[in-house]
Amino acid sequence: MARSKTDYLWYGVFALLVVFAIPWFMWRDATTWAGLPVWLWWHIGWMLVASAAFYAFTLGAWDRLMETAEVP
Questions:
Q1: pLDDT value at 64 more than 90
Q2: At residue 21, what are phi and psi to the nearest 5 degrees?
Q3: For the chain, which residues make up each domain, given as ranges?
């Protein structure tokens, strides 16, 4: 199956989601906001970003990239 530019864009999106899922650069930082460490807020926000990305993926690219057969 030939890959389109959109498919490669999704590969990049998923790679970024994995790379920034754990905020290694914020560890050992004791800064807090609203009673929780900032790195925890990063993780909560990143999970929202990941949820939005996965939702967008299911809207159009899921069937093509997962090679599922379309139901008539």
A1: no
A2: -65, -40
A3: 1-36
Residues 32-57 pLDDT 10s: 888 888 888 888 899 999 999 988 88
pLDDT of residue 70: 58
**Residue 70, C-beta contacts closer than 8 angstroms, at least 6 positions apart:** 63
pTM of the predicted structure, to 2 decimals = 0.67
Integer-rounded Cα radius of gyration of the chain: 17
b/e burial code for range 56-69 (CB count within 10 A of at least 16 → b): eeeeebeeebeeee
Calpha distance 37→11 (Å, rounded): 31
Q: Which two tokens stand for residue 65?
A: 């990239």
